[in-house]
Amino acid sequence: MRGVIVPLVTPFNEDYSIDLQALEEHINYLQKAGVHGIFINATTGEFTSLSFEEKKFLAEKGRELVTSTFYLVGTASTNTFEVIELTKHAQDIGADYVVIAPPYYCPLSDEALFNHYSLVAEKTDIPIILYNIPSCANSLSVPLIKRLAMEYSNIAGIKETIDSINHVRDVIFEVKGERKDFKVFTGLDQHFLNTLILGGDGGIMACANFAPELHLALYKAFEEKNFEKAVEYAKKLAKLSKVYNIASSFSSAIKIAMSIRGFSIKPVLRPPYTMDGEEVREKIRELLASLDPVP
């Protein structure tokens, strides 16, 4: 698995129920666009606002709908045994990978985090993508990532949602450098090209929900060694990523942008998250207009 992986939004109706029709439409759109992977129950998908049964339901529904690309399922929780159960479920329904963010809320040592991931890796066989997102959960240090990667063959890679190219560099050089099959993905659109240049494998990036053609154009240009074009697209992605600074949350930013671009997904977030108002919407509209035409 390489390239452009999309952390899927979870579409909701006005009554906060899951909008299955919009989910199917969006997954079909992304597959037709040619993305390399689709990731359900992601941060962008508001997984912390989903019940345990809804996470399983969405994982099963996604498995039905994703037919032409890699299928990833988020199985993170603050409860290790819940992570194991969700991961076993993803394995049983035939997901290709699980993506597991560290426990959040309570600070944990590297040893505690190692034990958490070890228990999951030992109880399951499905390839695991670690998910480093220190702005929202316990941080995964480079020595910890390396220890997990070297001890467990089913810990297959990492998504790095960290605004530090030095950290990503160290993971690529020190972990992937010793274990060639270990995948390194950025979680930040603005670091997509940086990560590829350093030897990473791609990106799992939220803006690809509404502008996958831009991410795919960058990846294609890089693969074809058309670096002038790759830099041009990288500059656009860097500007596009400012959408996160405008809105109050990842999901609000992405759903507003999707609404502006004409997607059927409603601008609805489950509480405690709230959608930003007209002022933010106008700023996002201006940002998107300044990038027009998106290839």
- Main β sheet profile: 8 strands, parallel, barrel
Mean pLDDT: 96
Query: What is the H/E string?
Result: EHEHEHEHEHEHEHEHHHHH
Shape: globular
CATH class category label: Alpha Beta
Subunit structure: Homotetramer.
Binding site for pyruvate: 44, 204
Subcellular location: Cytoplasm
GO molecular function: 2-dehydro-3-deoxy-phosphogluconate aldolase activity; 4-hydroxy-tetrahydrodipicolinate synthase activity
Describe it for me?
This protein has 295 residues and is an alpha/beta fold. The chain has a single domain (3-224), classed as Alpha-Beta Barrel (TIM Barrel), CATH 3.20.20.70. 47% of the residues lie in helices and 12% in strands. The protein is built from twelve helices and eight strands. It has helices spanning 20-33, 52-65, 80-93, 110-123, 142-151, 165-176, 192-198, 212-223, 227-240, 243-246, 250-260, 278-290, and strands spanning 3-7, 37-40, 70-74, 97-100, 128-132, 155-160, 183-186, 202-204. Strands 1-2-3-4-5-6-7-8 form an eight-stranded parallel beta barrel, surrounded by seven helices. Helix 3 (80-93) packs parallel to helix 4 (110-123), helix 5 (142-151) packs parallel to helix 6 (165-176) and helix 8 (212-223) packs antiparallel against helix 9. The relative contact order is 0.13. The model has no long low-confidence stretch (mean pLDDT 96).
